[in-house]
Amino acid sequence: MPELPEVETVRRGLDRSLLRRRLQEVELARHDLRWPIPVAACHDLRGRRCVAISRRSKYLLLHFDGATAPVALVHLGMSGRLWVERRRDLDAWRTHEHWRMHFGPLVLRYADPRRFGVLDVVTGNELGTHRLLCALGPEPLGEEFDAAYLFRRTRQRRVATKLFLMDAKNVVGIGNIYASEICHAAGVRPRRGAHRLSRDDCARLAIAVRTVLSRALAAGGTTIRDYIGADEDTGYFQHELRVYDRAGLPCVACGAAIRQTVDGGRSTYYCPTCQR
Ligand SMILES: [Zn+2]
Questions:
Q1: From ligand 1's centre to the CA of 251, what distance in Å?
Q2: Would you say residue 141 lies in a domain?
Q3: Residues 154 and 119 in one domain
Q4: For the domain that residue 49 is a member of, what is the CATH number?
């Protein structure tokens, strides 16, 4: 599943290829993904220029010009993939390909086998109150998210630290893989109750969130060129992971064997020595 660094990498790729281009055509192979696609609103985007490509949590936001400043909101769900292809190289619709947007010489394509993705269109005014965006916590790489916020927010929260970090109401964009990495980098046991985190723990966690996500982002950045003209796996998780999926292997920090626990079908990895 694409996590925040992957989505930000996609955003940068789209920013590089689609910004300032005019949308000529939207083709929809179906009228719903996770939720219905607003067909008329999609077609109303025709003729508009893409003036910005931003991201909120794991939602990609394509901003278009015009009086209502419409925004196409795209989420990759569990298995969605966006890629840009040159129009002259365009081939037949793929299995699980659901929509295309034509921007001059380039075509933005979306495929999603499990169809948990989202395509919606809202006006600029509605963006802040959109049902999918309005309850989201702060961005992990934004200014609002820091040690003080983390300490304040974790008081009275008996949930495990790892689950706290994965709850988008607390902070957005931290998925299962990076949550393990962040806890390891901060020296905190994933199962420790969030309410028991000290100010020092929160300070280390806040730094770990930035470090781990920034490092992943830097690694993801090397795959940006693959979004043009490529249709193979776009390199998710190519970056080096220090604990995730390393059960039994030595901790990179201390050499102890990494442990794995499974909760609700999701694996957690930690070092029994480095993490308390
Ligand atoms: Zn260790």
A1: 5
A2: no
A3: no
A4: 3.20.190.10
Find the 139 Cα to ligand 1 centroid distance in Å.
28
The set of residues, in sequence order, having a beta carbon less than 8 Å from that of 245 and lying 6+ positions away, is 267, 269
Catalytic residues: 2-3, 58, 266
Residue 183 pLDDT: 98
Distance CA 78, CA 82 (A): 13
Task: Please give the backbone phi and psi of residue 245, each rounded to the nearest 5 degrees, phi first.
Answer: 65, 25
- Dihedral sign from CA coordinates of 186, 187, 193, 199: negative
Residues 108-118, mean pLDDT to the nearest whole number: 95
Q: How many domains does the chain have?
A: 2
- pLDDT band, very low/low/confident/very high, at 239 (cuts 50, 70, 90): low
Best CA proximity match to 159, nearest among 194, 199, 202 = 194
Domain termination site, one of 129, 156, 172: 129
What tokens were used for 127? 């963006």
Does residue 173 share a domain with residue 212? yes
Q: Is the pLDDT of residue 13 over 50?
A: yes
Structural domain including 64 reads 4-129
How remote is the CA of residue 273 from the centroid of ligand 1, in Å?
Answer: 5
Number of H helices, E strands in the chain: 6, 10
| Sign of the C-alpha dihedral computed for residues 238, 260, 176 and 190 taken in this order | negative
Instruction: Say whether pLDDT at 235 is over 50.
Output: no
Q: How far does the centroid of ligand 1 lie from the alpha carbon of residue 183, in Å?
A: 11
Cα–Cα nearest to 267, from 238, 239, 243 = 243
